[in-house]
Ribosome biogenesis protein RLP24 (Pyronema omphalodes), 188 residues
Amino acid sequence: MRIYSCHFCSAPVYPSKGITFVRNDAKEFRFCRSKCHKNFKMKRNPRKLKWTKAFRKAAGKEMVVDTTLTFSARRHIPTRYSRDLVAKTLNAMQRVEEIRRRRERVFYRNRMSGNKERQRAADRKLVEENQHLLPPSQRTIPSGLQKETVDTDGMEVDEEMLSEEEEEKVAVKVPRKKQRTEQRMDVD
Ligand SMILES: [Zn+2]
């Protein structure tokens, strides 16, 4: 018995669950639940709905390129039944699943790393920009100079950020080029 994946959200469709729509040209569309079926009938694009796998993959929220994901893909080479092969495959399935889980954990950790710092920086900026909302005793900039200084500060911060970003880009680009040239040299 085969577990299909939902045409809309890519969730597994277990036997006796969901609904199958067969189009005029005999193409099958399997849906895990009525939600997906309804959304399909409304001609919505799964890539634009945040709860689908298609969106999460398109938005870089999940691992897309990985060898563990292609393991269960259907192959066009027919295999003859053999007991050993089945046993081997079952072992491999478990092992691949373990590896995939670990890689996904690493991917998630990398994706979420630096979130705290970014949030803190955003909070600091918010406080700096809205000094007039704070009680005078808690302001870091004196109220008389506030407007001018805040404006200029904001400009300075923006410029600094921009220049830093540019510098980073340059810094990233330069070693890559160097590496490429080195590789070429090696090849030559
Ligand atoms: Zn679904």
